[in-house]
Design goal:
globular, alpha/beta, about 280 residues
């Protein structure tokens, strides 16, 4: 309609984002951060995103998700800004944990409930796929066990109720996952440790190898999990942000260049001052 080419639009966006980033100052404080990843396209091409869990501001986006990328992401904040951070949420990806520990030593690194339940969901589905070979009733039940009960259709509810009364390992694995979801986040640290260990013992007692593997993974990242249970810190806003970023990908019909994807994310979600005339 405006007879503006794709390249012209992107030049405007690039210049606007560069200007907006130049207006950010050391006085802007962020107390609750999240580091997450987003696939640029199918395959193994990612960007890593540093955002503020409290405000939803995207602070920086970098190409890749390795140690070097994480270092660049963390260095987008000044020493003073990093010292003010209280919690930083990551998944269990090693470079992200390394970045949190090395650049935010005063903050508590937390592994939030969303990612932890995701590990358990995958374990439940592995158990189901193993058992479905022997039990006809488990056929076509993948989403019955992955879906929240409150969102069941009537058909799914009846199917789930009939299966949940059995002694299938799938049913027991699902209950262990639900027990973890029921742990109350944001509580006294001693209580957080106690609740986790009660859940852990119950999970191991089930003697389901897929669940045991998840417990072993959780044990290797115990402090991050306890920190999350204690503080209640989560990547909830970052996950909602992920949905908005996915819309950018859809509307833009994908991005061949990672830098263009970065600029689009910062343009729409960086809450930058993009208009020079607004600056006094």
């Amino acid at each position: 309609m405006l007879r503006v080419s794709f390249d012209q639009v992107h030049r405007i966006m690039h210049k606007s984002v560069a200007f907006g980033l130049s207006q950010r100052t050391d006085s802007e404080q962020y107390y609750y951060l999240s580091i997450d990843e987003k696939a640029v396209k199918k395959g193994h091409k990612y960007v890593s995103i540093l955002s503020c869990e409290q405000t939803g501001i995207v602070i920086e986006v970098v190409s890749g998700r390795d140690k070097q990328s994480t270092e660049t992401l963390c260095k987008s904040l000044t020493d003073n800004q990093r010292e003010q951070v209280k919690t930083i949420c990551t998944d269990m990806w090693k470079p992200f944990i390394w970045g949190a520990e090395n650049y935010f030593p005063e903050a508590k690194n937390c592994h939030d409930n969303f990612h932890l339940v995701g590990y358990l969901n995958k374990a439940v589905d592995k158990v189901r796929r193993r058992e479905v070979k022997h039990f006809e009733a488990l056929k076509h039940t993948k989403y019955v066990f992955l879906k929240d009960k409150s969102n069941f259709t009537e058909k799914q509810r009846l199917k789930f109720e009939s299966i949940s009364k059995t002694n299938y390992a799938t049913s027991r694995a699902w209950q262990i996952k639900e027990n973890f979801r029921d742990i109350q986040f944001r509580q006294d640290r001693a209580e957080a440790i106690s609740m986790y260990h009660l859940w852990r013992q119950d999970a191991l007692n089930a003697q389901i190898k897929e669940i045991t593997e998840v417990v072993e993974t959780f044990d290797r990242h115990l402090m991050g999990i306890i920190n999350a249970i204690e503080t209640g810190a989560s990547n909830a806003r970052a996950e909602r942000l992920n949905g908005s970023i996915q819309e950018l990908k859809t509307i833009g019909r994908g991005y061949r260049k990672t830098e263009n994807f970065r600029i689009a994310i910062l343009f729409f979600h960086g809450k930058l001052k993009l208009f020079p005339q607004q600056i006094q």
